[in-house]
Write a sequence for this structure.
């Protein structure tokens, strides 16, 4: 049950580094990267 989520989370982090070099800092702290992505995702949904 943990494996698919871990792979998805790992790919999500690797994807972030491709989009912006600033996300390299967040990849060092996966929890911060997840929190930031969740905040932006929540704001994006609120506009829809």
């Amino acid at each position: 049950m943990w494996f698919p989520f871990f792979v998805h989370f790992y790919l999500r982090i690797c994807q972030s580094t491709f989009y912006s070099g600033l996300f390299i800092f967040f990849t060092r702290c996966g929890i911060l990267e997840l929190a930031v992505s969740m905040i932006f995702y929540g704001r994006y949904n609120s506009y829809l």
